[in-house]
Predict the structure.
Amino acid sequence: MSAVLIIGASSAIGQALATHYLQQGLHVIWLSRYSPDLSDPKLLVIQAPDLAETADWTVHRSFFSAVTSTLQQYQVGLIFNCIGWLHQQTEPKLLPEKSLSQSCALLLRRTLQLNLEIPVMYLQGLWPYLSKTSGIRYLQLSAKVGSISDNQLGGWYSYRSAKAALNQWIKTASIELKRSNKTAAVVTLHPGTTDSALSEPFQRNLPAGQLQTPAQTAQHLAQVAEQLQSEHSGLLLNWDGRVLSF
């Protein structure tokens, strides 16, 4: 592997992953709507369009074609998709539901768009590369709360549902991908609770030691990626490599 693509690289985990792989001496392709704060000769920046602007995915066909050409040029063997969304603190304020009465159309649509639709759009857009590149590994960040069998606390209706749908989508895509590329691995990955803007409002009652720094999370996820094999394709994995139930 000579290069890594990080989608949603401006997130806390995305930035930490970029830093980790640059320190390993690899080329890192930073794909985000936002520019990086770091500078490195091995860092290539691709400006992402606002994919939420239109419901017509074909509008972005030329963008994905250009990204695919870049992946081929740099012989990318590892892709992380770090796109995800949990809450909005500005008006209209949108927070995970504690009860069904707090559910609303705006929250549900926003959650599904950013946690399912846009990740699926990237998966579809990069499919020609995934289906033809030997040994390619694609790790889609998801969440353990998307596990239906693990749900013992309730709440967070929209977020749980979006992540469960994302896990199912990746699982289904892995079956299709195996038909054209038996060496590929595409998985969903629970990164653990990371100290970031996404988790900040919900850190108060965490058990001691559960909150990880972005750098710690990046190191753990990189270890999972390093050990990932084609037989793992379709699984939901924990940050420590354990298989999580759907």
In short: The CA atoms of residues 153 and 245 lie 16 Å apart.
